[in-house]
Design a protein that fits this description.
The protein contains seven helices and no strands. By secondary structure, the protein is an all-alpha fold. Helix 2 packs antiparallel against helix 3, helix 3 packs antiparallel against helix 4 and helix 5 packs antiparallel against helix 6. The longest helix has 30 residues. The mean pLDDT is 80.
């Protein structure tokens, strides 16, 4: 990669520059494949993004990026990427299998979340004891203020921790 990048500073013809770009793309794709095998997901995403900057329709980069996002649980980001890859190469069985698995997982996750939210909303047990049976608007101000203070404190702590990293 260093040799390719340093060579780009020389005077070249358009054809030579295109060949160099093709070589860089192949190297980045190979690097992403190696990083994927080593479970270096952040690096895979970076390598794939570099490939996709130059070649937005690169099947390998799209597939690997979608696969990594899926492994990280980022289903809503991974699905459109894998669909784009499948649209470019509809006969690719690996992409089709990965997309199929991912859609099933995403559907199951959504169903679980929906059931959890439904349970939370239909069961007033999460309200303080003296508020049970009352409308949500009659929650005591002390309780509402306390939960807001705790939430803001957690948010401030997260900002401090993030700033330290």
């Amino acid at each position: 990669m260093k040799a390719i990048t340093s060579s780009a500073k020389l005077d070249m013809t358009f054809e030579e520059e295109e060949q160099l770009l093709q070589l860089k793309t192949k190297c980045l794709n190979d690097l992403a494949a190696s990083q994927l095998k080593l479970d270096h997901y952040h690096s895979v995403l970076r390598s794939c993004s570099l490939v996709l900057e130059h070649q937005p329709d690169n099947i390998k980069a799209l597939f690997r990026k979608g696969k990594v996002l899926a492994q990280q649980g980022e289903y809503s980001e991974a699905i459109p990427i894998l669909r784009a890859a499948l649209k470019l190469e509809p006969s690719n069985k690996m992409i089709l299998m990965q997309l199929s698995k991912l859609v099933k997982k995403h559907t199951a996750q959504n169903s679980t979340e929906k059931a959890l939210y439904q349970k939370m909303l239909s069961n007033p047990s999460w309200l303080p004891a003296k508020c049970t049976g009352k409308s949500a608007w009659s929650i005591p101000w002390k309780w509402l203020f306390g939960t807001t203070a705790v939430a803001l404190g957690d948010m401030a702590l997260s900002v401090v921790i993030a700033a330290g990293n």
